[in-house]
Design goal:
heterodimer; A: mainly alpha; Helix Hairpins; B: mainly alpha; two-stranded antiparallel ribbon; 2 strands
Chain lengths: ~120, ~500
């Protein structure tokens, strides 16, 4: 339970950075932290203390396998989600560089030619 | 037959990759013609599977709930129709419109990826798969919004990107919550598990419900999550505004909400009340903000928020009549909002501005565009016999007959407000005397006019043949939404 709570704290830290920080790079870091928090949450769902890899060996019966193996599905999901996160992150950073070229600042409060 | 379903995502993806390779040699004509052919081929595939009932495709031969399934039921069929028809006409329009941006290759590559993502969202029967396709469509759309790389476009794109990423994170978090309770990401399997174990008021499911409303509500641009929408819609190139407003916010937002709440978690009074409140606030905020805009595209964007409110309210009421109204309005909104955004692009190309205060008297210099956009404005304002009148009427009748008197009043009020600001658009842009700098304006090129005229004709036909449309396309989709058990049993084969 503590792990889940700490995980949630990580999510809130990311959300705080995303909402309250004015610097674009800090906002991007906020998004990245939130992504990691959610990935960690998915991993925690399949986590099992002193668990074994989910591979059914020849000398292992089904009952021990079910009792000890970790859940492989969240790991597969997280792999995909990390790749998607990488794509988003790369786009965000590229966009931040272009924004700096146009506005000469990383401050989100000064980048407001549109009214929102 | 079921082998045709994966083609809706694989054809756009592979033709985009092929286009990147071959496009090196012919940057000018190949990307444009190739994208038109690609989107046309999807229309043929849609015609081949049209009306064949529910078709299930098991990816890689793995039975659900273990493998990913693609599900084409009547609701997906309606959404596929909207997505692929709007895309086809928009690609034709882009042939001439994108001339001023010069780089066709990257534009159409991203465009096809976005199409693949949206088709995937509509077809998938797997929750995580839905997230992946949603991200493909979203990431392509972030890049396309900032395509002009001017300061304003980048700013809009960055705002959209940050909020979109936030929405995606919430959606993934919600999927994790669902998985933690049910141990499955197959939508039908999750639904069966929730029903069998009576988990409708489980705390984790409730939290997932909240996260999904937050995430998909943000993608749908419902108030209070609408901050990105006017900027993104008005800064994007016109074809992308069409795709965002006509298709993307519906597929990623409204369709996903419908699928998740009606087919998977099960609609509860809490969710429907949230949708009703969000929908009615969206309607009013969108309509009032629409008045204050000088930029034509910003006005259309706020009116999109307002019309999405109608659809959300229809879903929230939840009676069969209201769902029919919501789905019909979804179809109609895709048609007339695409028409309006395409006309705004044509007007901007010909006159160089899209501010209502600078435009005037275009009916003489641009007769076709003017006529079509008058039809679009009348349709969205709900003037009979155009299509918007019937769908709004159905939603209003459904609201009153379900006993929501105040809601009905808000719906009627919004309809009048919409009429008022679209009359202002007509008065300032189409009618009146031409302003001095509008003297030597010429009509847009043929390939831009053709989709506009087709959409205008569709507006009229949708209004005249509303009974046929409802009984043949909308009502089957509505029965899918209302019948959760049929969805579960057809996907899981039990």
């Amino acid at each position: 339970m503590t792990l889940y709570f700490l995980n949630f704290v990580l999510l809130i830290i990311g959300l705080y950075a995303l909402v309250f920080k004015r610097h674009i790079v800090k906002k991007i870091l906020g998004v990245a932290i939130m992504e990691y928090a959610v990935n960690l949450f998915l991993i925690l769902l399949g986590f099992r203390k002193s668990g074994v890899p989910p591979i059914l060996m020849k000398d292992m019966d089904m009952a021990t396998f079910i009792r000890t193996a970790v859940d492989p599905l969240p790991q597969a999901l997280v792999l995909t989600s990390i790749v998607i996160g990488l794509g988003t992150l790369a786009l965000m950073v590229a966009m931040a560089i272009r924004l700096y070229e146009r506005y000469g600042t990383f401050d989100m409060d000064e980048i407001k030619r549109l009214r929102g | 037959m079921s082998v045709l379903l994966p083609l809706f995502t694989t054809i756009p993806v592979f033709s985009a990759i092929l286009m990147l390779l071959v496009g090196k040699f012919d940057k000018k004509y190949f990307p444009r013609i190739w994208s038109i052919l690609t989107s046309l081929s999807l229309l043929f595939i849609l015609a081949a599977i049209w009306g064949k009932g529910t078709i299930i495709h098991e990816m890689g031969g793995w039975k659900p709930p273990f493998g990913v399934v693609l599900v084409k039921d009547n609701l997906s069929q309606l959404m596929l129709l909207v997505v692929n028809v709007v895309t086809f006409l928009t690609v034709i329009y882009s042939y001439s419109y994108m001339r001023k941006y010069e780089d066709y290759l990257r534009f159409f590559t991203l465009f096809l990826f976005m199409l693949a993502g949206m088709n995937g969202v509509v077809l998938t029967g797997d929750l995580f798969n839905l997230f992946v396709f949603l991200e493909i469509a979203s990431i392509a759309s972030y890049a396309l919004v900032g395509y002009g790389i001017d300061a304003e476009e980048l700013e809009a794109s960055f705002k959209y990107l940050i909020l979109g990423a936030l929405a995606s994170i919430f959606i993934l978090f919600g999927i994790g919550m669902i998985y933690s309770v049910t141990g499955s990401v197959n939508m039908a399997d999750v639904a069966r598990f929730i029903i069998d174990n009576g988990l409708a008021d489980n705390k984790a499911i409730l939290m997932a419900t909240g996260l999904f409303i937050l995430g998909f509500g943000l993608k749908a641009g419902l108030v209070p999550f609408h901050a990105w929408l006017p900027d993104a819609h008005s800064s994007a190139p016109a074809p992308i505004s069409v795709m965002l407003s006509g298709v993307l916010i519906k597929v990623l937002g409204i369709y996903s909400l419908m699928r998740i709440f009606y087919s998977m978690i099960g609609m509860t009074s809490v969710v429907s009340n949230i949708l009703l409140v969000m929908g009615s606030i969206s309607m009013l905020v969108g309509a009032f903000m629409g008045f204050g805009q000088d930029d034509m595209k910003r006005m259309f964007a706020f009116s999109s928020i307002s019309q999405m409110g109608y659809i959300a309210v229809g879903i929230g009421i939840g009676t069969p009549l209201a769902i029919i109204g919501a789905l019909f309005h979804l179809l109609n909104h895709a048609v007339f909002k695409s028409l309006l955004f395409l006309s705004s692009g044509a007007i901007q190309t010909s006159t160089g501005t899209r501010n209502l205060s600078e435009l005037g008297g275009l009916r003489k210099s641009m007769p076709v565009t003017s006529g079509a956009s008058v039809i679009g404005a009348l349709s969205i304002a709900g003037v009979p016999p155009f299509n918007g009148f019937w769908s709004k009427l159905i939603i209003i009748v459904a609201a009153f007959s379900a006993g929501y008197i105040w809601l009905g009043a808000i719906l009627v009020l919004t309809a009048f407000l919409t009429l008022a600001y679209y009359l202002r658009f007509q008065k300032n842009v189409i009618f009146g005397e031409p302003t001095p700098n509008m003297k030597d304006v010429r009509e847009a090129p043929f390939l831009m006019l053709m989709p506009i005229v087709i959409f205008a004709v569709l507006c009229l036909l949708g209004g005249i043949f509303n009974g046929w449309l409802i009984s043949n396309i909308i009502a089957p989709a509505q029965s899918v939404i209302m019948n959760q058990m049929a969805y579960i049993s057809s996907v899981l084969g039990i």
